Amino acid sequence: MTLLAVERIKLFTTRSPWWCMLLALGLTVGLTSIIAANWDNAPMPVIGSVFTHTFGLYVIMVMAALAVTTEYRFGTIKATFQAVPDRISPLVAKAVVVSLLAGLVGEAVAFGSWGMSWVLAQDNSQLALNSANDWRHVAGIGLVYAAGAILALGVGALVRQTAGAVSIILVFALVLESVVGFIPNIGDDIQKWMPFTVVSKFIFGDPDASSLPEGAGPPVVGELPPWGSFAYFAGIALVIYIISLVVVKRRDA
């Protein structure tokens, strides 16, 4: 519990987490509000209220990476490892604190976006959360944010440089996963197993067809069911994080 308290204090005494949380909320909920206010051709479905959740996800992943790279930048990680020589415990505590915070922000983003859609959409008759799938579309965003934070922590611990870690996260998610689809013959097969592509099915997969206009809705992504898609993404995040623990344990601070 002491380590958790220490990591919480270290996280909240810097400005970057506060700015990242505000940016994630403002950007995602703001864009969703614009979409909802202009959604006038049909009843707005539940998945329409969470289209923009990835914007907040990338911001929260940057926050998670900063939580570890900032310590290397200012040298506070050395004091941490001197106080706790096994090195693993403080990093696990950091993962618990950061992923919990990311999950809470994800839920705030999800229900804030859904609430603004309910208020602003001209026809909100399809926005009620009536099924397990509806709840997954919205509440599942918190789980994705938490897993994304663990992934970003692993990248940050491996790279140790803020610019490098942030670049890897954003370039991979925003550019590489899209570009890989253009590789001749095998691009599509590779793309459907890319982690951010797969986890999108957890949020958007299996929508209620009755709430969507004919021919509308997200494309079918990947081979896994929605919860299997989340397990795949979370598994990759956990593997990268465990690798980072092994590397941090073996190399000099």
UniProtKB/TrEMBL annotation:
Keywords on record: Membrane, Transmembrane, Transmembrane helix
Superkingdom assignment: Bacteria
Transmembrane segments annotated in the record for this chain: 18-39, 51-70, 91-115, 135-159, 166-186, 230-248
Keyword Magnesium assigned: no
The protein's name: ABC-type transporter, permease subunit
